[in-house]
UniProtKB/TrEMBL annotation:
It holds the Pfam family Cupin_7. The lineage of its organism: Eukaryota, Fungi, Dikarya, Ascomycota, Pezizomycotina. CDD domains: cupin_DAD. It comes from the Eukaryota. Residues 53-152 form the ChrR-like cupin domain. This is ChrR-like cupin domain-containing protein. SUPFAM superfamilies: RmlC-like cupins (SSF51182).
Length: 191
């Protein structure tokens, strides 16, 4: 039986660019096979970088805070949304039940507990279990960030005691979210 090192070496040796190029199918023919079972439709949401888009696409969350749902996966326990904040100060203190991926589209923000700043064009990974306090600085008129949230935000007080929860189910609980789903401006996956 081959060792892991031998297997990796074999794969590396047979994966040379020339060989891959020769094996690649360069013809412009779409896949003709059957659709795999339980695969949901693709989702394309145009104009997600336009924070001045139709206001009906934004769901009010708090004073001067809105979210735009893009994908809500009940079966996967995650959601993807764009958060728009038009005020400075503390937004929330929370703990992550799962990992979070963030891409800053406009403005900047940081966590009081960390030295880094998330600035326009930045990507941030936030690990499960991390507790932090999100602050938008005084000089930022608008902060817009796309978040892919796995699990939940557990809102906590300064000592870490839970005071609230936000997850895909609470996002679906907003009447405005349901209207966006009905209009096809967001996608819900239930597998």
């Amino acid at each position: 039986m081959a060792t892991t090192t031998e297997i990796v070496t074999t794969i590396a040796n047979t994966s040379k660019k020339e060989e891959l190029k020769e094996r690649a199918d360069q013809t412009a023919v779409p896949y003709r096979g059957p659709r795999l079972p339980a695969v949901p439709d693709d989702l394309v949401v145009p104009g997600i970088f336009d924070s001045e888009c139709d206001e009906r696409l934004w769901v009010p969350q708090a004073p001067d805070v809105w979210f735009r749902p893009l994908l809500l996966s009940v079966s996967g326990g995650y959601f993807v949304n764009i958060l728009r904040v038009r005020r400075s100060g503390i937004l929330s203190r929370h703990r992550h039940a799962g990992c979070v991926h963030a891409t800053v589209l406009k403005g900047r923000w940081h966590y009081l507990e960390h030295p880094w700043w998330a600035t326009e064009g930045s990507y941030a990974f936030e690990p499960p279990g991390d507790i932090h306090t999100l602050e938008v600085p005084e000089d930022v008129k608008e902060m817009v960030t796309m978040f892919h949230v796995t699990g939940a935000y557990i809102y906590v007080d300064p000592d870490g005691n839970p005071v609230g929860v936000e997850d895909v189910f609470s996002k679906l609980g907003h009447e405005s979210t349901m209207k966006l789903l009905d209009s096809g401006q967001a996608l819900q996956i239930n597998l």
